[in-house]
Amino acid sequence: MKQALTVPKIKAMKQAGKPIAMLTAYDYPSAMLAEEAGVDIILVGDSLGNVVLGYDTTVPVTLEDMIYHTRAVVRGAPGTMVVTDMPFATYRLGPEETLRNAARLMREGGAHAVKMEGGADLADEIRRLTLSGIPVIGHLGLTPQSVHQIGGYRVQGKDRKDAEKLLEDAKALEQAGVFGIVLELVTEPVAAAVTKSVNVPTIGIGAGRSCDGQVLVYHDLLRYGSGIRDKRFVKTYADVGATIRQAISEYVTEVKSQAFPEEKHGFPLDEASAKEPVTSVRLYGGEAP
Ligand code: KIV
Predict the structure, then answer these.
(1) 30 C-beta closer than 6 A to ligand 1
(2) Domain boundaries along the sequence of the chain
């Protein structure tokens, strides 16, 4: 069986110049397919809220949601590193509460590591987790859990002040003990500068070509869903949504026209019983009519 990558191995990939392929997954079949396709890290992202649960933002996603979905992912991908997002506000009530919540994601969910959105302000929480044996990935740039504060899903690192803040935060995260940093919607030159300035891998989404790895949302990569918006930073590798819609529509048409099911989809009686008319066979132990 495939062996899940470990934290030291992920860190070594940066030094060896080996790009890291991360993908989100939220359930058993998506995790299974991601593992079979050779993904290095599966992220049970709280984008779960948007692409699976139908929320407008990631804010309503709960710890229980993340535990439930992480369990399914771990069952589907037993040979892949699984990182789970700590949902909104579950790591903002101090290091002890953060440890309690992260421990649940690992103990009850089976995650190998957790991810949290934020910079230098999270140093104490990250230190508490890493000293307790919980590996952490940081998340800088656009941090969707703060969408109400930021006022929209905007590209970050556009000016010098913003760039300097991102560099400072990345260094603070590294010092606090993260083993990787997701950079979301960060200008390409700033993402390149951050990648150069830290020894842990950066994993970009909408952060250009210089990151040490890339991450995409499963449903974006596959256009899996209805009304998936085109996003500049996403490459669509298949249109699974169109394939599913077409297949279900054919099914509905065939049920209505009685083209499905055909004889081959049904089950015959055994040979002896088949010789008698069905009305005289006592199928369920009752009196034959
Ligand atoms: O929740 C998520 O899917 C993420 C990725 C966008 C990195 O955090």
Answers:
(1) no
(2) 7-239, 244-280
Q: Which CATH superfamily is domain 7-239 in?
A: Phosphoenolpyruvate-binding domains (3.20.20.60)
Q: Which two tokens stand for residue 280?
A: 């005289």
| DSSP secondary structure letter of residue 229 | P
Q: How many other C-beta atoms can be found within 10 angstroms of the C-beta atom of residue 141?
A: 27
pLDDT in tens, 252-282: 999 999 999 999 999 999 988 888 776 665 6
pLDDT digits (tens, 9 = 90+) for 215-239: 999 999 999 999 888 999 999 999 9
Of 46, 153, 221, the one to substitute when testing ligand 1's pocket (max ligand atoms within 8 A of C-beta) is 46
Strand (E) or helix (H) holding 214: strand 213-216
pLDDT at 227: 86
Question: In sequence order, what are the beta bridge partners of 88?
Answer: none
Ligand 1 nearest-atom number relative to CA 217: 3
**Distance, CA of 68 to chain centre:** 13
**Ligand 1 centre from 132 Cα, in Å?**
24
pLDDT score recorded for residue 52: 98
Residue 201 CB: number of other CB atoms within 10 A?
Answer: 26
Name the residue with the closest Cα to ligand 1, atom 1.
45
Question: Residue 261, preceding bond cis, omega within 30 degrees?
Answer: yes
Tell whether ligand 1 has an atom less than 6 A from the beta carbon of residue 23.
Answer: no
Ligand 1 pocket, residue 181 CB under 6 Å:
no
Q: Any idea how long the chain is?
A: 289
- What does pTM read for this prediction? 0.94
Interval between CA 43 and ligand 1 midpoint (Å):
7
Of the candidates 184, 254, 262, 263, the residue annotated as catalytic is 184
Give DSSP secondary structure letters for 236-274: ----HHHHHHHHHHHHHHHHHHT-SS-GGGS-PPPHHHH
> Could you tell me if the CB of 47 is within 6 A of ligand 1?
yes
Quote the tokens at residue 147: 């969408």
